[in-house]
Amino acid sequence: MHQDHQVEDHQHLEDEDQEIERLADETELGEPLHRGKKSRAGCARAAKLTPAAPRANAECDCFQARPPGAAITRRKLALRLPFSMDAMHCPMDRLTLSLAAVFLMLAPGGKARETTPAETPKAAFPQGSPDEPLRGDLSLAKAAESLDGTALAWVRKNKCGSCHTGWPYVSSRALLMKEAPTDSLAEVRAFFEGRITNWDADEQVKKHQHREIVGTAAALAMHDAQSTGRLHPVTRQALDRMWALQRKDGAWNWPKCGWPPFEVDDYYGAVLAAVGVGHAPENYARSDAAKAGVDKMRAYLKKTPAPNLHHRAWLLWAAVRLDGLLSDEEKQVIIRDLLALQRVDGGWSMESLGPEWTGREGGKSNPDAPSDGYGTGLVVFVLREAGLPAGHAALQRGVKWLGANQRESGRWFTRSLNGVPQHFISDTATVFAVLALKACASGE
């Protein structure tokens, strides 16, 4: 196996440090510590004094910058706890472990995270629910308010990029500045720029994962295209570093956490990179700095079949601005397949786009699931990007569904398959609902 594929093996111990700290903070994020229905008897393994097995999902945790020595390391914690680190996989044990980690950080011998007088107050994330009342009238300003609040809370609290919240926000928020001017976008963008400019220094604290550079580069490139129309120097820096991390086969090491639709395979990372590079202003994709990487990425996407219609939709989006990914005939096939999945009510369902998905907590895709915000927003937007006129009957029905299904909070709900009660995919759904509505309001 090529050494580029062995990142997980070299990182799992450090990533478990992050998992420990994240679990200690779960109540601040509003996440329940008991997510399953296992009994106390089923969690008896907490008493075992056996070494922990490496976690296959270590790559899925956010990186949180912190001073050297400020973390409770996995090895140190293992010496103090009377049970195996493998207990983290059991709901009751996760509760015990979370409380233990908190006590250790507060104990005289523990090491608390540093704070400053200017530290941002703790942020609470909204609890997603299919029962949240509908607004009854469409409000892009309310959608912007929801996006601002969640994105700010995420970067202030977690200090990381995210497939479902931070990157989509930066990729789209500029389109709503007329309806809802904000300083939030500048703050979130500055956070991501800082991640790039401080990359090497942060590497001394915690090894970065390839997904962060890919997602950040793509988000910054799309924001540049929507705002100034010029490639920002930090965006160029991010894109150039992205090529340095590219594998020989043209893809990047991407999380495979069982968190659909984004963190399940390498293909999504490659197609996200293609979308970002295609949007990068000043014809960056054809520049000398990008040519070799684009050629390898294009070859990967040509020879590797997209695993589902969701990823094919993203490929269609990428192909709008990046030549050589799809033939005209292949584009029409994807368009036809997307149109075929439209529901009677005019919407689309995310789960029908990836019927094979099974989430980390056991949630399975239901191909017959009702229409949702992400499925509808993504498909309407991509079809519009691919050339369907705004007046196309299917798009008009999709727009009507979006107008009728915005929630009081300003979001569009989408069920998470990942056992997360906040249903963070609803943040992505709101972004694509906005993109779709904007695209279909921009003429025929």
Tell me what you see in this structure.
The chain has 444 residues and is an all-alpha fold. The protein has 18 helices and no strands. Helix 11 runs parallel beside helix 13 (309-321) and helix 13 runs parallel beside helix 16 (373-385).
Number of helices: 18
Query: Level of helix content?
Result: 40-55%
Mean pLDDT: 79
The radius of gyration over CA amounts to 22 Å
What fraction strand?
under 5%
**What structural class is derived from the secondary structure elements?**
mainly alpha
CA-to-CA gap between the ends?
50 Å
Number of strands: 0
Instruction: State the shape.
Output: globular
For the sheet with most strands, the description reads:
none
Order of helices and strands: HHHHHHHHHHHHHHHHHH
Q: Which regions have little confidence, pLDDT < 50, spanning 5+ residues?
A: 1-58, 63-123
Features:
globular, 444 residues, 18 helices, disordered N terminus
Tell me the layout of helices and strands.
Elements: H1 7-24, H2 26-29, H3 74-80, H4 91-106, H5 140-158, H6 166-172, H7 184-197, H8 199-203, H9 210-226, H10 233-245, H11 266-279, H12 288-303, H13 309-321, H14 328-340, H15 350-353, H16 373-385, H17 393-404, H18 425-440
Helix pairs in contact: 1-4, 5-7, 5-18, 6-9, 9-10, 9-11, 11-12, 11-13, 13-14, 13-16, 16-17, 16-18, 17-18
